[in-house]
Design brief:
Layout lengths: L1 H15 L4 H12 L3 H25 L5 H23 L3 H24 L1 H7 L9 H22 L4 H10 L5 H25 L5 H19 L7 H22 L1
Helix pairs in contact: 1-2, 1-10, 1-11, 2-3, 2-11, 3-9, 3-10, 4-7, 4-9, 5-11, 7-9, 8-9
């Protein structure tokens, strides 16, 4: 049942083009009664493989700002390990509540980006050129640490936060921000997953079923994306984390 459910969820994730880590956590905890710490470990570890293929694809298309991604991702490694350590000491109920809150905040950011882009551009004046030199390190490492901590502690990729930071602070164009974001999340999810593995929270059998199901489902769902009207896609992108976060908050 877990494998089949992950195929269905993967199809939805592939259809909307979202990472779906938060919804994966919700399905594992609420749907199958998996302990929250184990669910976070499985979601982060699964995301490593998703980001690996996505980042490589964007890199081949020259849609990755490698230096910025490496600096922010390097800071993210430390942040993710710290976040996983903090999460290990949090009570399950508090951790579930905070995870649900983070998922809902990501949904809110996606909603603003998709439906109120003009308002967002008016209030967030991003750089028009790439940030370079010492400032890239001064801003990049703390950004990575904060992003990595959020991902490591609450099991989500923090992609919505990272993309906005890339555009506003680091001057990365929208298209390149997607690929660069994937490059950043790759070491974050890998180090966070290792942190949970070291603390004994990663269940390999659940992880393998989740990874296999999401991979198969995402491949199927991606085939349907170009068939869907744009309004349906936009609504689905926002609805997926909203539903996942809402369920997590209600049943934590």
């Amino acid at each position: 049942m877990l494998f089949v459910s992950m195929i269905l969820l993967g199809a939805v994730i592939g259809f909307v083009g979202a990472g779906g880590a938060g919804v994966t956590i919700t399905l594992l905890t609420v749907g199958f009664g998996v302990p929250i710490h184990t669910a976070l470990a499985v979601a982060l570890s699964s995301m490593t493989f998703t980001m690996l293929s996505g980042a490589y694809s964007h890199f081949r298309e020259h849609e990755v700002v490698v230096k910025a991604g490496a600096i922010i991702g390097g800071g993210g490694v430390a942040g993710a390990l710290l976040g996983a350590a903090v999460s290990d000491h949090m009570p399950s109920d508090d951790l579930s509540f905070m995870t649900g809150l983070m998922i809902l905040s990501s949904a809110l950011i996606l909603y603003v980006k998709l439906y109120h882009a003009d308002w967002l551009n008016h209030h967030l004046h991003g750089r028009r050129t790439l940030l370079t030199g010492r400032k890239l390190y001064i801003y990049g490492i703390p950004t990575g640490i904060v992003s990595g901590f959020l991902a490591g502690a609450f099991g989500i990729g923090a992609a919505a936060y990272i993309q906005i930071a890339l555009m506003v602070i680091f001057g990365v164009p929208l298209l390149q921000s997607i690929g660069t974001c994937m490059m950043i999340i790759l070491p974050i999810s890998a180090s966070g997953g290792l942190g949970y593995l070291a603390s004994g929270h990663l269940d390999m059998w659940i992880f393998l079923q989740t990874l296999a199901g999401l991979t198969v489902g995402a491949w199927i769902g991606a085939k349907m994306t170009h068939l869907a009207p744009l309004p349906l896609l936009k609504a689905s992108i926002v609805a997926l984390p909203t539903i996942g976060g809402g369920i997590m908050m209600l049943f934590h």
